[in-house]
């Protein structure tokens, strides 16, 4: 075992036998642009700067790091790393600080729509990959397509690459919507301390640095091609990837993908963004129509044509509202998915 000193902050790091200083510093999750040490150091510095910080009276400090184990990729670079950090305050109180470093990754919500599907039934299918995941003891784990971000650091590029490798589908980066970034634009910043965390989902914040940036893509294909995709074998076989594709109806995704955190997070973001109208530009925003009358799921109100069609008679308005409520809660002909909408006829100009 050897000890090195980081030039940026003078921090001492213990290395296990077989891991050199150059190999450690070339490992981006430890020493890259957006790395664990830099992020932790920034968060710790906010304790003293912000008087409202809960740890301001007795700030914690990063005193040392000990690398316990590492795995090497076939390319000769570090792939994964296990470390512990000594984080204590002046009173000697410590914070849990064991971490598994693997870096960022991406997850893709790929939705396929039969080109002969009517707009009323909102028929769409999500592509899941089924593959061995030895760490969880499974040989057939169903999940959203996902992959690690390579040294280029391009999240959208990594997503497009994984979609091609795992699904065999050519998608340009510009055709991907970043659900994570779209969701972050509406987050409340009241009383929030900006620690510089990525706009992404952290699946295991208690023990791993990994964050997953979530993307979505929607495409119309023929029903015949849709059937061909189900059960298709894909993946880079020479890299040990043995992937089978599984198509799941969007309405069943919450159940079929319940074991996969990427799946649940992407579904929640997609539904929330669509409800708030932030996916309109992508062609699948939260809009509905009932008998030719426009309805917005973002505001739960009708367009101005409602008054033209139904007049200003309050009894007629109440009857129409009740009828729409039945359609929404049941299986009526409401365009787009408005299963959980709270319907009202206010603010329609009638």
Describe the structure.
The protein has ten helices and 16 strands. It is α+β, with helices and mostly antiparallel strands and 350 residues long. The strands form three sheets. Strands 6, 7, 8, 9, 10, 11, 12 and 13 form an eight-stranded mixed sheet that branches. It has a five-stranded mixed sheet with strand order 1-2-3-4-5. A hairpin with a 6-residue loop joins strand 1 (2-5) and strand 2 (12-15). The longest helix is centred in the last third of the chain and has 16 residues, at 314-329. Mean pLDDT is 79; it is low at 285-300, 302-306 and 314-350.
Helices and strands in order:
Blueprint lengths: L1 E4 L6 E4 L5 H5 L2 H4 L4 H14 L11 E12 L5 E11 L9 E4 L3 E10 L10 E9 L4 E6 L2 E3 L6 H13 L9 E2 H6 L27 E10 L1 H7 L3 E2 L8 E7 L3 H4 L4 H15 L11 E4 L2 E4 L4 E2 L2 H6 L3 H16 L21
Parallel strand pairs: 2-3, 6-11
Antiparallel strand pairs: 1-2, 3-4, 4-5, 6-7, 6-9, 7-8, 7-13, 10-11, 12-13, 14-15, 15-16
Essential attributes:
globular; disordered C terminus; 16 strands; ADP-glucose pyrophosphohydrolase activity; 5-stranded mixed sheet; NUDIX_hydrolase-like_dom_sf; ADP-ribose pyrophosphohydrolase activity; 350 residues; 27% strand; single chain; 10 helices; alpha+beta
Briefly summarize what is shown.
The chain is an alpha+beta fold and 350 residues long.
């Amino acid at each position: 075992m050897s000890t090195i000193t980081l030039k940026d902050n003078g921090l001492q790091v213990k290395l296990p036998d077989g891991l050199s200083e150059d190999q450690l510093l070339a490992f981006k999750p430890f020493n890259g642009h957006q790395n664990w040490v830099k992020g932790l150091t920034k968060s710790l510095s906010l304790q003293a700067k912000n008087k409202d910080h809960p740890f301001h009276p007795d700030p914690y400090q990063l005193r040392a790091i000990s690398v316990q184990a590492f795995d090497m990729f076939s390319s000769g670079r570090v792939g994964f790393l296990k470390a512990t950090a000594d984080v204590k305050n002046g009173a000697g109180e410590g914070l849990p600080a064991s971490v598994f470093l693997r870096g960022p990754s991406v997850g893709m919500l790929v939705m396929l729509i039969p080109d002969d599907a009517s707009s009323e039934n909102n028929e769409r299918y999500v592509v899941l990959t089924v593959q061995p995941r030895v760490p969880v003891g499974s040989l057939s784990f169903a999940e959203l397509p996902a992959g690690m971000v390579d040294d280029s650091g391009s999240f959208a590029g990594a997503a497009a690459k994984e979609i091609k490798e795992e699904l065999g589908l050519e998608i340009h980066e510009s055709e991907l919507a970043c659900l994570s970034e779209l969701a972050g634009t509406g987050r409340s910043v009241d009383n929030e301390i900006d620690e510089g965390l990525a706009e992404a989902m952290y699946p295991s914040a208690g023990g791993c640095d990994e964050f997953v940036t979530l993307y979505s893509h929607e495409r119309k294909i023929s029903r015949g091609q849709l059937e061909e995709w189900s059960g298709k074998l894909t993946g880079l076989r020479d890299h040990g990837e043995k992937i089978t594709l599984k198509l799941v109806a969007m309405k069943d995704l919450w159940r079929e993908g319940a074991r996969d955190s990427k799946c649940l997070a992407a579904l929640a973001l997609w539904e929330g963004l669509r409800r708030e109208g932030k996916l309109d530009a992508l062609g699948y925003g939260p809009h509905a129509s009932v008998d030719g009358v426009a309805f917005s799921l973002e505001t739960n109100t009708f367009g101005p044509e409602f008054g033209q069609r139904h007049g200003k008679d309050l009894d007629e308005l109440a009857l129409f509202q009740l009828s729409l409520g039945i359609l929404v809660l049941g299986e009526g002909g409401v365009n787009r998915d408005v299963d959980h909408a709270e319907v009202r006829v206010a603010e329609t100009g009638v």
